[in-house]
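Field guide to reading this record: the first block holds the primary sequence, the second block holds the structure written as discrete tokens, and the final block holds curator observations. Each block starts with its own label. This record concerns Carbonic anhydrase, catalogued under organism Neolamprologus brichardi.

BLOCK 1 — SEQUENCE
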Amino acid sequence: MVRNASLGAMYLEGFEETQTGHWTLKNDGHSVILQVGSGMAVSGGGLPDVYHTIQLHFHWGGPASNGSEHTVDRRRYPMEMHIVNMKSIHPNLSAALDDPTGLAVLGFFIDVVYADNVHFGHISQKLSSVAYKGQATKVKPFPLMSLLPKHNMSQYYRYYGSLTTPPCSQAVVWTLYEVPIYISWSQLAQFTSQIFSTEEDAEQVTPLQNNFRHIHHIFSRVVSASIDAKLLRGAAGRTLLSATSVHLLPVLLLGGFLSGL
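BLOCK 2 — STRUCTURE
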């Protein structure tokens, strides 16, 4: 783990505001995706350009297993949320995937407490409408920052990675935040037990569980800590993100969604 003094807080444009129009929540059979439309962007914090926010999605485990895509000191969290942003110079996702820094993904661990997260309720209260593959519903926009650990946004880790399935494009600037989002056990259970990877009229419905990629080795990538990150190792130098799971959900270029496994 290398401390990088140039990695300060990023600028999250429009994240504090309520955007106009409607957002769309969709079950694509691989994840639950919130497409947020236009109006938000991320920059600074060592990013090479301005990136427009296009969607967020989730990874989770099962009723008795955790499902984050990254681990910290071998610990896997119950869930992980990815906010996907595309470099502003690109006209579409296909072009971004040909750029080694075409996408910037903000990753947030999700941990569990006993009280509901009222802000997360903007999403969790809509999950029953997208329980089955192919279902979609409108979501009234809300300030996206209300979901995030807003007082700890300068504490993160950075590395350059890839998509998880063919073409496995080396196109992702990963930013993984140190402080998790907290939701309740009941909100977690809505994902692990009440979302299905099959259509509603399928002969046998299948719960959507464990939609994360297993941990992979870092393969000589440098993992950098921001100037305010706390969980650095000492002189022994053991990396914090041991065997980092480098990875975003696979990409399906369908209907403009960046979609998942």
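BLOCK 3 — OBSERVATIONS
The helical segments are 93-96, 121-124, 185-194.
Confidence is low (pLDDT under 50) at residues 234-261.
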